[in-house]
Amino acid sequence: MRAGTITLIVGVIAIVTLLSSVFIVDEREKALVLQFGQIKAVKEEPGLSFKIPFIQEVVRYDDRILSLDTPATEVTPSDDRRLVVDAFARYRIADVVQFREAVGVGGLREAENQLEDVLNDNIRAVLGAAGVTSNTILSAERSALMDRIRQRADARAAAFGIDVVDVRLKQTNLPEQNLGATFERMRAEREREATDERARGAEAAQRVQAQADRTVVELVSDAQREGEIARGEADAERNRIFAEAFGADPEFFEFYRSMSAYENALKGSNSTMVISPNSEFFEFLKGDGLD
């Protein structure tokens, strides 16, 4: 019974020792074998690996592309128009040995803290460089600026075994204290543009009104001139006809003129005339007027 117990204990110890000496490296990670804090082996290929049980330990690091969001940071472009920028980066651990030596037991958290500082420093340096204005940051040249930030950050991050794959600016906003002034300036600019448009519209309306008034005056003047010409021609024609009639029969013409004078003088129902019966006005009303 005692021998069986010892055998069982030895077997359990052997199994535990065997299990402690075996570890599996996933295809999505890299591993370091450490002995008393010193790196003894690097396991980058996926599969089964071995270590000395109870003496060596395995530290695993993610081999995938990781993401880091940076807090909003304030930058001042060359036009002194301050902006608040936040960005995100894509990175991966390229050299696990160098990474371990750079961050120690702090691991990924310590690495991201350092990478965040690197990104913020380079964001300020690139966006605040000479010739880079707020309009440049908000234009299509933004992509070139982001690539420049990535290159500078990647050069510094290489010191702790990290490759910076990509850097993107998520948002670019004005600081809260500048929003009110900016909105007021935009409103003033829009009001000035509206005033200019109204002034141009009023000027155009005055030109149209003046042109219309001149056209009316010209049309009325032409119509009056043509009317005077027509009346003159009609009067001339009438006088010609009268002259011909007078020449053809002077007595009849004189009679007609007298009748017209009677008609014009005695218009209306209340017409009253006080005149001598022997007046020449009644010449054709006398018996011998048509002799």
Account of the protein in words:
This protein is an alpha+beta fold. It has 3 domains: 61 residues, no CATH class; 108 residues, 2-Layer Sandwich (Tetrahydropterin Synthase, Chain A); 75 residues, no CATH class. It contains 7 helices and 9 strands. The strands form 3 sheets. Strands 6, 7, 8 and 9 form a 4-stranded antiparallel sheet that branches. Helix 2 crosses helix 3 and helix 6 crosses helix 7. The N and C termini lie far apart (188 Å). 12% of the residues are buried.
CATH topology grouping of the largest domain = Tetrahydropterin Synthase, Chain A
Task: Specify the CATH architecture of the largest domain.
Answer: 2-Layer Sandwich
Measured as a percent range, the helix fraction is 40-55%
What structural class results from the helix and strand content?
alpha+beta
State the low-pLDDT regions, or none. Answer: none
Count of all domains = 3
Q: What Rg, in angstroms, do the CA atoms define?
A: 56 Å
What is the CATH superfamily of the largest domain?
Band 7 domain
What is the string of SSEs from the N terminus onward?
HEEEEEEEEHHHHEHH
Mean pLDDT: 81
**Main sheet specs:** 4 strands, antiparallel
Oligomer: single chain
What is the CATH class name of the largest domain? Answer: Alpha Beta
Alpha-carbon distance between the two ends: 188 Å
Tell me the total number of β-strands.
9
State which percent range the strand residues make up.
Answer: 15-25%
Count of helical regions: 7
* Anisotropy-based shape: rod-shaped
